[in-house]
Design goal:
The complex is a heterotrimer of chains A (169), B (190) and C (41). Chain B is mainly α and 190 residues long. Helices cover 77% and strands 0% of the residues of chain B. The longest helix of chain B is centred in the first third of the chain and has 29 residues. Chain C is an all-alpha fold. The chains are: A mainly alpha (169), B mainly alpha (190), C mainly alpha (41). Chains in contact: A-B, A-C, B-C. At the A-C interface, helix 7 and helix 9 of A face helix 1 of C.
């Protein structure tokens, strides 16, 4: 797929750890959940403010939540890499194989990509600067609301597709 | 046992189990619901503990409807999921740990809400040792519920190892955040 | 009391929008799930 070798993203070391230390996979699941709880919780609050909930709060008071969203994302990526690189140890399928046949896995990555693009558009256009100074009781501009809505839907979707991955294998 | 078998074989349960679409949608909703419930209440707990102090506590209530929606979704989907394979679930002690932790979380969250927002017609919110204890307790029981939920499918030794390893990694993580939190802007400069 | 009442109204509207948004998105996800699980390759 994509001209990549069949064993791309396969890690024999991670597979070995998963096989030898039976807690590795479930602990990764726990921290994947902790990551998604941090990420979805913070993003939901930020997006809800942009969509007009909690308008008494200036956006700048909520902005300090962002680093926690990033921490959540990093936890999800690191634990996600354990699942991907060590996949063989769990389901006897190579990561590239799984990506080729599992539509839910594909959808999850597509949604993550779209969320990333949405975030880049938000950050590198005037929208972010406009939102940073969103005052109490101030309504966000329509462009920001579209991005906030997209963000909320995409991250909920990512959690949704992620839960379905085993049914796509 | 007869009752459990009756539930397991009920028309609703069979319909759900036969429709993969519905079954996985219910599973996914359960995860989404917990993201909202645990996510938003945990951020409240963080705030009470002094993390992200810029968040005003009183107006934060306005985000609660999503938290309640998450709770409602999870009570509904949880009951349905339990009814699909009740005999299997109810012989596993892990489900009782999970349910007890969730019950504790709901109780603590209600008490915390009353302590923070109980005085009507005032936007003054008092943080105290009591509210901080409740915030810590809430985070702990959510952690227990999360771990219990994830280890249901594993053997008992693996369950226990997972719980132990989680505590160790979490302690390490909290230590790292305490040390580098200000630099990483997770914690505020005091 | 007026300002507070106004707040409530706009809040209800905002939640309605959020609710419809999430419900619509969820329905879309379920529809895609059905398509994935039942449409043969």
């Amino acid at each position: 797929m994509f001209g990549l070798p069949e064993d791309f993203l396969q890690s024999h070391l991670i597979e070995h750890w998963i096989g030898t230390y039976r807690w590795v996979w479930p602990v990764s699941e726990v921290f994947h959940f902790i990551g998604l709880i941090l990420l979805v919780g913070t993003v939901a609050i930020l997006d809800l403010r942009i969509l007009g909930i909690g308008k008494r709060i200036p956006y700048s008071n909520l902005a300090p939540l962002m680093p926690w969203a990033v921490l959540g994302f990093i936890l999800c990526v690191v634990t996600g890499l354990v699942f991907v690189t060590g996949l063989w140890a769990n389901v006897q399928m190579l990561p590239m194989e799984a990506l080729a046949i599992d539509r839910f896995l594909q959808l999850k990555f597509i949604f993550i990509g779209l969320a990333g693009i949405n975030l880049l558009l938000f950050t590198y256009t005037p929208v972010a600067r406009r939102i940073d100074v969103l005052a109490a009781n101030e309504e966000a501009p329509a462009s920001a609301k579209v991005m906030g809505a997209a963000s909320l839907v995409l991250w909920v979707g990512i959690v949704y597709w992620g839960r379905l991955i085993p049914w796509g294998l | 046992m007869d009752l459990l078998q009756a539930i397991e074989a009920s028309a609703l349960a069979m319909w759900i189990k036969e429709s993969s679409t519905i079954y996985v949608a219910i599973l996914a909703s359960h995860t989404i619901g917990l993201a909202f419930l645990v996510g938003i209440s945990s951020i409240l707990a963080f705030r009470v503990l002094g993390v992200t102090e810029s968040i005003p506590i009183d107006p934060f209530q306005e985000f609660f409807p999503l938290m309640y929606a998450g709770a409602a979704i999870n009570v509904f989907t949880g009951v349905v999921l339990l009814g699909l394979y009740p005999a299997d679930y109810l012989v596993d002690p892990t489900i009782y740990v999970k349910l007890a932790a969730i019950l504790a979380a709901i109780v603590i969250l209600r008490r915390l809400k009353d302590a923070l927002y109980g005085v009507p017609h005032t936007t003054q919110v008092e943080l105290s040792g009591k509210t901080r204890q409740m915030a810590v307790a809430l985070l702990i029981v959510w952690l227990i519920a999360t771990v219990a939920g994830r280890v249901m499918a594993y053997s008992t030794p693996t369950k226990l190892q997972t719980a132990a390893a989680t505590v160790i990694f979490l302690a390490a993580g909290i230590g790292l955040i305490a040390m580098f939190g200000r630099r990483l802007r997770l914690l505020r400069d005091s | 009391m007026d300002a507070h009442g106004e707040d409530e109204a706009t809040n209800h509207k905002a939640w309605l929008h959020v609710g419809v948004l999430l419900a619509a998105a969820f329905s879309l996800f379920v529809a895609i799930t059905y398509w994935v699980l039942y449409i043969p390759e």
